[in-house]
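Run log, item B.
One chain of 106 residues. Sequence copied directly from the ordering sheet:
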Amino acid sequence: MLKLARTWIRETAGDGDAGPVERLVRTREPLVFYGPDASANYSLSWLLCHYLLHGEGGRHAAAFAAYIQAEARNEGGPGPFYDLLGLDPAQLERDVAAYIDKLKAT
């Protein structure tokens, strides 16, 4: 999973205006998520969750929990996601890529 996510991030980092994490955050349609890049989307989504819960000593865990509650109230989406985290898309992209690079498969 780590190898797939690292490769996918590197290969798609220059596609369009958004990086792979930003494209994942903006994906709202299941047919897009489960399309041709389903394995990479799934891997990256788990790694993004792992980062938000455990990265930087759990710094984003409370904000991520608040976002999950917003989703449950049908008040989610990219805007609330970034607002609650206090990050912009470019910063999250860099932080997640750096976090994945530091992880070791066990």
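Observations after the first pass:
- The first helix runs from residue 2 to 12.
- The chain is about 75% helix and 0% strand.
Flagged for discussion on Thursday.
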